[in-house]
Amino acid sequence: MALDKLKIFIEERPDKFSTTGFEVLFNPTELKLDKSANWPKVATAGRDTARSTFTHGDAYTLTVDLFFDTYEKRKDVRGYTDKIVDLVTVQGGLYRPPRCKMTWGDNTFDGRMWALQSLNQRFTLFLDNGTPVRATLGCSFKEWRSSKDEALTTKRSSPDVAKTRVVKSGETLSSIAAEEYNDSAFWRPIAELNGINNPRRVAPGQVLAIPPLTPGRRS
To answer: Model confidence over 109-156: pLDDT tens digits?
Structure first.
C-alpha cells in the first residue's frame, strides 16, 4: 500500500482552496496541537481567593517541522520550500497571506482552516555552487474560523451554563439584568454569583458571570 503523504491545500481565491494541493517531501515525525481557555480572575470582596470566570477560548495552534531534501536530484530545495513560504507572503487577489487546509491520509484535521503564523527556515546542506538542497522548516499554524463556523460550532444556548460579559460605562447590575433577562429585578442572581454587595458599584471593564435563571425564580 502506498504511503500517504501530508498534503496542503492553499487558498487560491477568497474561501476557494486548491483541489489538488501539494505533498510534503517527507512526512513529519511529530505534530504538536495546543489549545487554551481563558479564565481571568475577578476581584471579589471577602474571598480568600479571587473568583475565576471563563471569557473565551483560544484557537488551536499546530506546530510541525517539515523536512525537505533534494540532494540526490541536485535541485534547489527552495523549489519545494517556497510553497510554504507563500503561506506567510501577501498574495495578489487576496491582499493577505493565504490560508490553507491539510490532510494526511484519513486525518483531515477536522476540516479546520489554518493560517501560517510563523515560519523558521534552516538550510543545512548545499551544493558546491551554494545551492541549498536540504532544509527544515519550523511551522506554527493558527486555526482560523469564520464567524459563521464559530456560531455553528460553539454551543452558547445551553440553559444551564453561565456566560460572561464585560461591564460598559454607565451600566449597573439592574440595567444588565434588564438587558439579559428583560427584567431589571433579576440583578440579585448576578450579584450573588459575582460576590457583589452593592449592585450599583460595578466598574467599566469588569468581567461578570451571568447565571442562567432557575425556573420559577423571580429575584
So the answer is: 999 999 999 999 999 999 999 999 999 999 999 999 886 676 556 554
**Backbone dihedral region for residue 75 (phi beyond 0: left; psi -120 to 50: alpha; all else: beta):** beta
Give the cell for residue 94: 487576496
Q: What is the pTM of this model?
A: 0.68
* Residue 8 near residue 102 (C-beta atoms within 8 A): yes
* Separation CA 210–CA 148 (nearest Å): 24
- Residues contacting residue 149 through CB under 8 Å, at least 6 positions apart: none
State the cell numbers at 91: 498574495
Q: At how many degrees (to 10) do helices 173-181 and 187-194 cross?
A: 120
Q: Are 87 and 10 in contact (CB under 8 A)?
A: yes
The H or E element spanning position 118 is strand 113-126
pLDDT: which is higher, 214 or 21 = 21
Mark out the alpha helices in the chain (DSSP H runs).
Answer: 78-85, 147-153, 173-181, 187-194
| pLDDT for position 152 | 58
Buried b (16+ CB within 10 A) or exposed e, 127-160: eeeeebbebbbebbbbbbeeeeeeeeeeeeeeee
